[in-house]
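Entry type: protein chain
Record version: 2
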Amino acid sequence: MMRYFLLALFILAIPSLAFAQNLPPVADAGDNRDVYTGETVILLGSATDPDGDLIVGWSWRAADVPAGADWAFAYTDTSTPYFTANTPGDYLLSLMVLDSRGATSAPDYAVIHAVTNLPPVAIATADKTEGPAPLTVQFDGSQSYDPEGQPIVMYLWEFGDGSAPSFAATPPPHTYVIPGTYNVVILTVTDEQGANGSDTIVITVTEPVAYSWSDFLQPIDPPDANRVSKSVFKAGSTVPVKFRLTGASAGITDLVAMLLYAKVSDGIVGTDLEAVSTAAATTGNLFRYDSASGQYIFNWSTKGLTPGSYRLSANLGDGVSRTVTISLK
């Protein structure tokens, strides 16, 4: 009798088991996000089901978008639709999902906040903006910044004189050798949006100023009217080449002056070559300033040179020819 009673109870329970309530799934539209206008936004939807049922349907809708927004919502029946945020403002998007037994979730919302990317601010500075040729200028763009705190990812300096551009925040010193007015532009580009800003510096290069000088000093004897000296030095020896700035130029101690020499054969002057110093030179063929004597000095090495006449040229960078011809024996 007990067996029949238990069987009856089981049979009565079958309908309630078969038709147990299907709990709805839970949709997750993803995190709220800040983006820049023009970005393609991919939403990352997900869902869970308390009964373990499969999620078989996805439905995204736009609950609210910026007024006048020009946009299109693509693949809204998948977990990862996308759109391009062409208009600044808030995009309120909802997600609902469907499980395999027909239950629908409540909507879940994500807010995509789109803002317009602000361009970086370019700040170009120079240690000098005018002077006589040759004018060497140190530029600096390292103070440039992005108002949103993004890094500056590219610098472009155009020097206005046809020379190659520089892509460094602080480029190497640049020398203008021809008088004129130059517009120097620094362009900066930042972030994936490609926004850029620019700043301009005007560089004015005037005609070279002729330096006052003493002419070549001893041990080179004063030259005649044809710039030929009577001085004769031993080939292979060191010849001290000296001069002093005078008059208004007397206080200049940082002059960039170079020494060149050329062989003279049968009255014909050969190609100018950079002089080589034996000692106490600055760099290359540059004269050094001796504060004790107030003179510019270059200890010219004649090692390897053959006897004959040689024209020495002191280039002070002002376009004035300063030469003397001496002899080696």
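Comment: Residues 138 and 173 are 5 Å apart (CA to CA).
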